[in-house]
Batch of 3 targets.
Target 1
Amino acid sequence: MRSDPVSFRCLAGLAILVLSLTPAGVLDRGPVICPFRRLTGLPCPTCGLTRSWRAALHGRFRESVALHPLGPLTVVGAAAFAAGIGESNPGLTRRLQSWTVLGPLAAAWVSVWLIRLRAATR
């Protein structure tokens, strides 16, 4: 069963809309909902992304990078995905989904996570 990409685009757009309208303090006062962090006390690869997106969408880029170094990049990617950029160009979509792009992105993601894990255990 395949998922409808339009549904995922709508979800990405909705996430961006909600976070752009969310006041800063709301997310800072909430409980820890990450199962990995609740079990281990350590950040997961995505810990901080929601707050990072919110900061980026409010124009606070230093705060966004401090919360998660990949936050600004992922919010731009989500916005491009939500807008359907590249959908009309199948060649571009194939190149973006190839391992020449996904491999380095995955390596960067794991590297950032390992650096954050090391900092959290010091």
Target 2
Amino acid sequence: MVRYAVVGAGGFAATHIERIRTRGGELGCELAAVAVRPPDRLPGQVEAFADAGVEVFPDAEEMFDALAGRIDAVFVPTGIHTHAPLARAALARGHHVYLEKPPAGTIQEVDAMLAASADAGRMIAVGFQMIFSESINLIKRRVVEGRLGTVRRLRTWAFWPRHDAYYARNEWAGRMKVGDAWVLDGPSHNALGHQVANLLYLAGPRPRAFADPVAVCAELYHAREITGEDTSSLRIRTAEGAEAVFVASHCTEGAHTGPWIEMDCDGGRVRWAAGGKTRIEYADGAAESLDADGVECREAALANFTEAVRAGEPGRLMCDLAMGRRFTLAVNGVWESSAGSRAIDPRYTRRAGAGPEARTVIEGVNEAITRCAAEGKLFSEVGCPWARPAEPFDLTGYSSFPRRVEG
């Protein structure tokens, strides 16, 4: 059995724990331990874990020390600013690591984890689980096979409102920094970071690889009183020749809707919608469709990680930290291009709802997102009155955040 430990027991940690428990017998893995700080423990929680044969520790690093040589890997589904120090501590004790997305706040933290992984001879998987979806992988195969030809343009967009409760759930939600640690929280880095990762994944013509971002032009905004971003439009240019546009906001009207992806390629066009509904139309007149995904992505991610750990073969990972590095490089470029997150004049916003479900809405942002996606433009380029143009940022040789962002 492959033996796992998980840092935390709530939020995403709880979903990992549940999947290991329910799928462990089939996959050949088991939950050996969890780290839960005493102030965070729920009544009866320690006893319930003990009854299941799961050790409980008050501190992550204490757990890493105690379990050195007794477990195979550690899951790190914690705050963005804690990913790098916890991953490096786990690696130093000889544990493989499953790192929840996004990998880290800065490119230098990712590079430090890559170095620690190489020194320890241990692997790091990154939880961009959408990469495991049947529909995304159908599109990726057609790109790799050359059936779609060179990818030229990609666009993804979503209406993704977040209520006050979302921002009150922890110390780092909506934050640019916590203390001296960079978080860069917002739709492009966190809540919809999967979609930025999908753009880079689909733009790359090689299997198990993201496209290489070389320049970014981005506009980040906040309508709420936060230091992170809640509204973003960005354009990434890749070394492979593709241009990728992402547009989304946590301050939209109505319910969560999307995300969608559209791709224009030399050999055809792709339309994808959340849930897996996919349509590929080839330049020669042929077409293929998929109505829905037949894969539960997080279960597939657990199965893939378990297989790679059991075999001791990092090359089996569908998404490793080397791939995640290109995502972090792009996001750091996004923040540099925008020079941080800009406040939207309250004249263009309003409050809706009450209590924990209250939210902030930017007037007309749904229409602006739709137009940006259709035209491949940023908010300032479609005339949003609260938007300001950003400076393109060249990522050539970039290795340390920040340059233009003031912390």
Target 3
Amino acid sequence: MKYLSTWAALPGATAECVEKFLAGGATHEPDVKVLGRWHKVDGSGGFALSETDNPLSIYKFAAKWADLMEIHVDVVIDEADAGPILASVFKG
């Protein structure tokens, strides 16, 4: 499964977030493949796309940052998978 994570530092936590990130704190569990990670140019947060069959690994990563960041994680599917389903549901 693929997971889209969004994050933003909690008020007053930006410096500590940067310190933790630079110290290697953004490392995921071995069973998580990070497909991409992007930071907003205004410094207010970012996005990551990850893939794993173990949602507990995504949960563990989010828990490690929960004291410093507001994190949201959504399960996402590829457009190639969504298209046929939408076509079958909304056939005219």
